[in-house]
Amino acid sequence: MVKDSKLYKSMAEKVPAKNPLALPEAVKLLKTFDKRKFDQTVEIAIRTGIDPRQADQIVRGSVVLPHGLGKTLRVVVFAKGDRLDEAKAAGADEVGGPELADKIKGGWLEFDVCIAAPDMMGIVGPLGKVLGPRGLMPSPRAGTVTPDVAKAVKEYKAGKVEFRNDSGGNVHAPVGKIRFDEQKLVENIQAFIDYVVGLKPASVKGQYIRGISISATMSPSIRVSR
Q: Within 10 A of 37 (CB to CB), how many other CB atoms are there?
């Protein structure tokens, strides 16, 4: 623990106290924090000016990052008929209907994304108490309830990221791995920022994006200028 705290402190001393860095400079600095034995996840945090209590100011969506996330997501699909076969062909890790629902009710949750065809929501709906708290419940808004299940599977396998603002109006998401090369990280992060900027609710008054920072799993955060 002492060694870890010294390492963290030495990294924190490199982060400018006042001025945010341009994105390429922030990524360059973040890359110097690759001091762990594992490939840390790079995350972004965006502080917005929304009022999260207002339903018309929710910032939520999903975006396919140019260079993926550096990990393969485990995807399950609720479908039947041709869609079931299409989901399998697209790379779904598990497909099914009532039997898949029973498996999840029994405690099986070894997946990262759950996709459902619209005609399967009668089976998926009762799983809300299990999937909802884990952020796994299929949603039309997130693109995980869709008639084109094969397309959704391919997008998540390619590095699609879902997000929703928290109760403080902040948006958090993974955007890659620290061992990505700098340009790939910059492009992933910029794509995410641009997407969130494009989601500005019409009813937001004043400044929408109030702060952006990036960090790795075990590193200090670095503020980024726009």
A: 5
